[in-house]
Amino acid sequence: MKLTKERIVAAGMAVFAEVGYHNLSMRQVADRLDAHAGSLYYHVRGKDELLALMADQVCRQAYDAGTEALTALAPTATWQDRVEAQAITLRLSIKQHPGGAQLLAESPGMLSTGALSLMERLLRTLLDAGLPADHCDIAADTLLSHVTGFVLQEQNQPTTPPAVTAERYAELREQFPLLMSPSMPRPSQDEKFTRSLRLLCTGFATPA
């Protein structure tokens, strides 16, 4: 099958999911495509460009999903609703790609236009809301960092919780009485994420 930039990016995403950011190599991508590594360079200049293209793909999908969510909002939607729509769709989009959160985290260094588009729209939302201009950049960066970190934690959670004996549980409860208390709320990941966004927006709206 003919090599194309799209096929190379798709293979890069597959290899990235298996070996991670730092271990990805053009040779591994070529092997996935049953091609010579040198032939990839006719389409992609090297690993850095491939990573930027991969980040762009993830971010463009997230941007399009965010556009749909924003369009679906009622005309009376608040700026907090608009921020929430963008953050929720971003989280769901990058969760679809193993390593997607890491690609987003690394995207500023790649000058990914897809990631820059996400940041630009978020900044516009905050500025249009009347938030102080000198706070908006920090607020937008904080939001994107929060989404990235949240998904990184989700993707790195073990599929099965560690086994804990009754004796060990008693020790942990004594050492961490608040954290291990049965009365401590245990919201779902979706609820935790939504509430965290609302707490952040409340902070953004409060004069520093």
Automatic annotation (TrEMBL):
Name this polypeptide is given: TetR/AcrR family transcriptional regulator C-terminal domain-containing protein
GO-annotated molecular function: DNA-binding transcription factor activity; transcription cis-regulatory region binding
Keyword field: DNA-binding, Transcription, Transcription regulation
PANTHER family, per the entry: HTH-TYPE TRANSCRIPTIONAL REGULATOR RUTR, TRANSCRIPTIONAL REGULATORY PROTEIN
Pfam family for this entry, one: TetR_N
InterPro entries registered for this protein in UniProt: DNA-bd_HTH_TetR-type_CS, Homeodomain-like_sf, HTH-type_TetR-like_transc_reg, HTH_TetR, Repressor_TetR_C, Tet_transcr_reg_TetR-rel_C_sf
UniProt organism field: Streptomyces triculaminicus
DNA-binding region(s) in UniProt: 25-44
Superkingdom in the source lineage: Bacteria
An individual GO BP term: negative regulation of DNA-templated transcription
UniProt domain HTH tetR-type: residue ranges: 2-62
